[in-house]
Amino acid sequence: xxxxxxxxxxxxxxDKSFRLTRFTELKGxxxxxPQDVLQKLLESLQENHxxxxxxxxxxxxxxxxxxxxxxxxxxxxGGLSLVQTTDYIYPIVDDPYMMGRxxxxxxxxxxxxxxxxECDNMLMLLGISNKMTxxxxxxxxxxxxxxxxxxxxxxxxxxxxxxxxxxxxIVLGGVATTVCQPNEFIMPDNxxxxxxxxxxxxxxxxxxxxxxxWLDIPEKWNKIKLVVTQEDVELAYQEAxxxxxxxxxxxAGLMHTFNAHAATDITGFGILGHAQNLAKQxxxxxxxxxxxxxxxxxMAAVSKACGNMFGLMHGTCPxxxxxxxxxxxxxxxxxxxxxxxxxxxxxxxxxxPSTRSQRAAAARA
Length: 365
What we know:
The chain is an alpha+beta fold. The protein has 9 helices and 13 strands. One of its GO terms (biological process) is selenocysteine biosynthetic process.
């Protein structure tokens, strides 16, 4: 997907000051309920990690429920499993078409974290802001829908329905569903000591989109203009937007090629939060030691200049349609990085020592 020209509201008969991101007070996946609070709220829904099904002669069928990227539910017939996920976000970029693509990629990313490459069906969830004028609604929402549809088609699936409502803020999301044979998905629980961790995209999207909005807010721009130029911000914003709209589908296929043992996508809880969640799922006694964070150019300096308000170098900065963290055998991270839309790598490695004391994942930036 090539770089797009900046969205020009006047080309769509909108006021030149129109900004999609003004139709929400929270950005992207920065709307997440804190992880510890969420886990307590969802305790009553938690299913056992594995379930024995008598239809399959006592064989243990994998079952994944609350807390990870998707649910994996054994079906009653044929030894198949339902793999399903749902997600939604608020506007994070001002280009409606790209925002639609990002919303779709964000939903699909949860399937790809399971090594699933084929999605059978998608639904779209759309909240139209009741603060939009009729002209804004009629010009902007079709662009968002088209972006979502195009990303779904790129993923080899289609949007067959969903739900559309009025809402104070714009809401964009959906449901992705597929039915898989056991060899078509990879349970995220088989990390072993000696595995390495690779990422499919750099971190820092939340910082990049936030500081891009600060270009229109002098009091905020003045705080960072000594460490970053307007050109730096524009470049980081464009790269962040293209990265968020890029599917992790190729990486999902490569998980099978390179015998990946576990994976998760990095979104609202930041790399540290998702690493901790993934560590808890493992069968073996392992810890995830992160010693290098690949970040969009200049965004680490911006984060530091802001007093680490974003938590980027602490591993707690939210990402939207973020990178996928894959634990695999060392060869993939040692030069066998394929070229393509989302080649894993970008310099992040990790160890997995078999000591319980480090299991919560120590992030070392």
